[in-house]
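Subject: design request, 133 residues
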């Protein structure tokens, strides 16, 4: 994953998502507890996962702010643990994640076109039309 970007993760499951009672996905980095206002580990639950109920996988995202908590000097780790509605508990093996750096000057300095006299930023340069025109 690249620090300061949205990182997506997909976990293949032995059961369909709809068969799960709960799931916990934990992201951490040994030697890095984060900061008081941005702590590690990060825990995602079943309700954070994006996937249809009838597929054998879970998809989850870390936000820009969450990926910034990780150091690019260490490998991050992730592991999933879940239980089905019939009580079967299973887990994934711990997986290593390479954390790639991002130049700190690019994080808070997006390059957008300048605002016009009304304070609007026009990305495509075309006239904005309402549905009535």
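Subject: RE: design request

Done. Sequence follows.
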């Amino acid at each position: 994953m690249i620090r300061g970007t949205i990182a997506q993760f997909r976990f293949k499951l032995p059961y369909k998502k709809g068969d799960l009672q709960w799931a916990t996905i934990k992201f951490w980095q040994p030697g890095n507890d984060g900061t008081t206002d941005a702590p590690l580990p990060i825990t995602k639950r079943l309700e954070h996962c994006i996937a249809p109920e009838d597929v054998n996988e879970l998809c989850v995202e870390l936000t820009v702010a969450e990926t910034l908590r990780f150091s690019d000097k260490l490998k991050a780790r992730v592991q999933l643990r879940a239980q089905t509605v019939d009580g079967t508990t299973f887990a994934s093996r711990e997986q290593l994640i390479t954390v790639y750096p991002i130049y700190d000057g690019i994080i808070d300095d997006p390059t957008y076109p300048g605002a016009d006299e009304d304070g609007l930023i026009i990305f495509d340069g075309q006239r904005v039309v309402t549905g009535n025109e």
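The mean pLDDT is 87.
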